[in-house]
Amino acid sequence: MYKGYVVDTALIAKDRHFRMGCRLCHKGNEKGQGKEAAHKGMIKRPSDSLRTCGMCHKQIADNYSKSLHYTTAGQRNGVMPRFSKDELKTFDAKVFEQSCRSCHASCGDCHVKAPAVGGISVGLIQKHKFVKKDEGKTCAFCHGGRVYPEYTGEYGGSPDVHYQKGMTCMECHKKTEFHGDGTAYATKQAVKDRPSCRNCHKLGQEAKLTARISHQRHQGKVSCYGCHTATPYRQCQDCHLGKGAAARPALILGLNPRDKKTLTTLRLIPTVRETFVKAGIKMENFDALPNYWDSPVHNIRKRTDRTRSCDVCHVEKAGFLGMDTMIRGGSKANQGLIMTPKPIHK
Amino acid sequence: MKIIVVLSSFIFLFLLSTDVLANASSCVQCHTNEVLMKSLHKPPVITGGEEGEG
């Protein structure tokens, strides 16, 4: 891990970021003798303040100040409907800034030093080079509990076909999605120009007639993920409860809670009734939201059990959320996500 | 010759007062030395594994 603090000598001569010296961003005492003296007053993470990078990258910094990766407002907005007005105030004062918002990404987390997870970081991404991207050392760390290992296949099962084709995160998730466009979106679903399968995969151009017919029949009724998610993915349970999390793999199909009409892959989210009890929040409106949310599972294959046979859904109802498979003690809103597929007549 | 000596002294003193030479003998001196970094590094205390969006 010490290698994460080693700077490439060649960069200092070549990279314009170093022209004004380390102290411009990191402060500290350059004339100090020894580690403690030199580090006195040092700022470890100078890009936590957007003003640092904003000295030169003003437009990006201004946009980023409103970006969901920076504000993590999506986390707050996602859970907010469960709170009463007073509970929301307590949440903002005691929980959000101290806990949820620790996930926010500074400029450096993506461009300089790999983010720390659980206090552990591999350090400088490329010896203090200001990299444009290095998903394996950035995205993978913060999103390494669910999305990334599902994408690479490390979670078990097959990897996403896009990963196998050599596509990394930023092939689909463009920099404007992260840097933002200056709009303070409430949720990631609202972000303009977010990735869509149809950006590359156009309907009506399928090589096989059966695929074209199937897409026509299910268009507007089933999301791409509903059929093309290959394997069970991580369902997080009992998180934030002190006694530890239990994650189990499962593929769950149900109605998208955001529109209540599209069948899609659902993921169990960790918020349970006791999640904020230690902060004195009972969540008076807990049942306003379900425990399952639509999840664009990054484990796509062209051929899955559901594309091979209509019976998997229409007869076996494999993976469909039901009263018997639902979590116990969960939100009453979960029942609204149950969808029973219609029988098909052959 | 006298002028050259005076001018060189002036430039040297000027550089000493700026960050240019300072960098050569401080942050950079330690952080470009892998052996030194290894000797100084202390592994962090692990407080928990709850961070990360997941």
Written overview of the protein:
The complex is a heterodimer of chains A (346) and B (54). Chain A is mostly helical and 346 residues long. In chain A, 29% of the residues lie in helices and 7% in strands. Chain A contains 18 helices and 5 strands. A 3-stranded antiparallel beta sheet of chain A has the order 3-4-5. A two-stranded antiparallel ribbon of chain A has the order 1-2. Chain B has 4 helices and no strands. Chain B is rod-shaped. The longest helix of chain B has 16 residues. In chain B, 65% of the residues lie in helices and 0% in strands. The chains are: A mainly alpha (346), B mainly alpha (54). Chains A and B meet through loops of A and helix 2, helix 3 and helix 4 of B.
Quick recap:
The complex is a heterodimer of chains A (346) and B (54). Chain A is built from 18 helices and five strands.
Notable features of this structure?
heterodimer; A: 346 residues; mainly alpha; 18 helices; 5 strands; 7% strand; globular; B: 54 residues
Note the total helix count of chain B.
4
How far the N terminus sits from the C terminus of chain B, by CA atoms, comes to 69 Å
Portion in helices of chain A:
25-40%
**Strands across the major sheet of chain A, in which order?**
3-4-5
Q: What is the general shape of chain B?
A: rod-shaped
User: Element order, helices and strands of chain A?
Assistant: HHHHHHHHHHHHHHHHEEEEEHH
Average residue-wise pLDDT of chain A? 92
Question: How is this fold's topology laid out?
Answer:
The complex is a heterodimer of chains A (346) and B (54).
Chain A: H1 9-14, H2 23-26, H3 35-38, H4 50-54, H5 58-64, H6 68-71, H7 73-79, H8 85-96, H9 107-111, H10 139-142, H11 147-152, H12 161-164, H13 169-172, H14 175-179, H15 209-218, H16 224-228, E1 233-237, E2 246-250, E3 252-255, E4 263-268, E5 292-294, H17 305-308, H18 311-314
Antiparallel strand pairs in A: 1-2, 3-4, 4-5
Chain B: H1 2-17, H2 19-25, H3 27-31, H4 34-40
